TrEMBL record, chain A:
It comes from Phyllobacterium trifolii. This is Uncharacterized protein.
From TrEMBL, chain B:
It comes from the Bacteria. The keyword Iron applies. The keyword Endoplasmic reticulum does not apply. Pfam families: LigXa_C (PF19301), Rieske (PF00355). Keywords: 2Fe-2S, Dioxygenase, Iron, Iron-sulfur, Metal-binding, Oxidoreductase. InterPro entries: Cholesterol_7-desaturase (IPR050584), LigXa_C (IPR045623), Rieske_2Fe-2S (IPR017941), Rieske_2Fe-2S_sf (IPR036922). It comes from Phyllobacterium trifolii. Residues 27-134 form the Rieske domain. GO terms for molecular function: 2 iron, 2 sulfur cluster binding; dioxygenase activity; metal ion binding. This is Phenylpropionate dioxygenase-like ring-hydroxylating dioxygenase large terminal subunit.
Amino acid sequence: MQLGLSESARATTAEEARFRIGYPNSRPRKSRIIALDSDSVAALKSLVDQASDGAHFLRYIEPKGATNSLKMLSVDAILEDIDGKRTNLVDEIADADVIVMVTSAGASAEAAEVIGNACFVRSKMTTGLVLNSASVPSEQLKRTLTTMRPFAAMLVVSTGAEYVSEMLSALRV
Amino acid sequence: MLRKEQNDLLTQTGPATPMGDMFRCYWIPALLAEELPANDCPPVRIKLLSERLLAFRDSEGRYGLIDEFCAHRGVSLWFGRNEKGGLRCPYHGWKYDHTGQCIEVPSEPKESGFCNKIKLKSYPLIKIGDILWTYMGPADKEPPHPEWEFALVPPEQTFTSKRWQESNWLQAMEGGIDSSHVSFLHSGSLNSDPLFKGARGNKYNMADSKPFFEVTDNEGGLFIGARRNAEEGHYYWRVTPWVMPSFTMVPPRGNHPVHGHFWIPIDDENCWAWSFDYHPVRALTPEERQAMLDGKGIHVTYVPGTFRPAANKDNDYLMDREAQRLGVTYSGVEGIAMQDASLQESMGPIVDRTKENLVSTDNGIIMARHRLLKAVRAFKDKGITPPGVDPAHHRVRSAAVVLPVDQSYIDAAAEALTVIEGKAPASV
């Protein structure tokens, strides 16, 4: 210990950093990564082997009918996992910590509304990832963004598909 | 989170490190021009990218940035005599010009030409705006001069300060693109700081502490848009540009000056936080300039004779628990700059990013790291010039705008995010 230093000065030395508690500070997160279009499915397939057990890679198929309690909103959908097995959106997101919607610029992103609504009523945070490319006209990107914006608390426009894995890794997914 | 090897890659900027080599592709701020106020003024010691250097201004006004130590016996040339076109070591009289070339070795016969064989490493040092800029890379790769708007407007429209921050550059820079902390850490300052208060946008900020975010790639770096609810059918957008590797601008408020930062490594455990305020179309008022000198807004007051903030880790940042309790300041630390710096320094000299738990609203930070990692690998492996070197990438602005809900800031505010000479900033 170096005498004469303030508490803040002493606590922030590299020497003191060695005594930071090394126990884990979070539990594994459960995530659902949902491709909204076929190009995004291809991007996600390449990530399946790298992901943790808590990550489910899914594809949006179609909406399910509105419930009696929420007649105006479609809040469930049919999804399909990488092996082609069908599942319900509401079941998938029930215990998920992170929900990521992935789509390509220019693709129709109407599925975002269904997923966004389902997450909203269950107080789940959503992230939208739009894979952009120089060949996509800006009008098409704009249309995709406008559709997704109300339903994604965080919307990311990336010019490289490799960002998907980088983001998932950063989020511990 | 980052893996350890990724964290090491981004945080180590000394000579012959990949990130250090990448930083050496850019013109970076080295000193305030006022640090060398006159010809033959005292030289200044400066450490940049883990290299100890000496800056001086010779009898003809030429700026030099050279190895700090005399080639003879390793004496610091800070003790040197700056006179008659060069800097003379007081130990044995060896003299160097502004390029580091030795021009006199008194103990050797002049005719021997011995001094021609002695040259200290030197880097170009040029004045643009209030700043002396240097380029520390290979001479044959020197890029065009920087074209940041804040440095190019007339002197009466701009003000720049710098402060020593006792942390790695990356954790400081990441604070500059982390828009979600403003509603908490700086909440006490929005309505009281003379360089922030009174803007209509503050009302939206305070009414909506859970902004939505939109991060968009661009050629030079990123735009990070934070949107909050405004009047019916409209969003209030605050858009922060980040230009690689370490330039950020804060979205403006009302007609206040616009501010921003550079984060430049001193070494791996310290950095310079450069802070500027400018207005693109008008002079700063005497009151605004005085507020900046008084450490308001993003500036600080100093330990006299230094660039160390008066509130620093040695005095626990003058922590005021009563102000914290009453909500005068959210963290108990006074001033926006030190509210940020105190927390960033508390992480330790180089934060261990293997332990962090990022959430989706941290995507601006995640994307910036991704862009840096991608650029440093492309530069190291293929020699590709990184984004942000091209002066075209410097011509960006921050913006604060209210837009209909169906409009994308990147389209609707495209003009506002670009420097247009004579055009006022887009601000609310």
